[in-house]
Amino acid sequence: MGSNFAVGDRVTALVDLGRGVTKGTHGTVTSVSAFHGLVTVRFRNGTELPSIKLHQITHA
Predict the structure, then answer these.
(1) Is position 54 within any domain?
(2) Which domain holds residue 39?
């Protein structure tokens, strides 16, 4: 895990995030808020979740 996420990075959820996104679901970072330590990720199932904490995802 790390805080060095950038738009376009492929990631994997480390926990169940809701809205059909379970642990192990892959996605792509669409937005990064370095100041707040949050990212937005669009997952393979089409769900886009904002405000994901960095410890909830890892690089795929």
Answers:
(1) yes
(2) 10-59
Relative to beta strand 48-53, strand 38-43 is antiparallel
Instruction: Indicate yes or no: pTM above 0.70.
Output: yes
Domain count, the chain: 1
Residue with tokens 């904002």: 50
Average confidence (pLDDT) over 30-35: 90
Biggest CA–CA distance in the chain, Å, is 28
Phi and psi (nearest 5°) for 7? -55, 130
Structural domain contains residue 46: yes
Q: Please write the tens of the pLDDT for every residue from 7-19.
A: 999 999 999 999 9
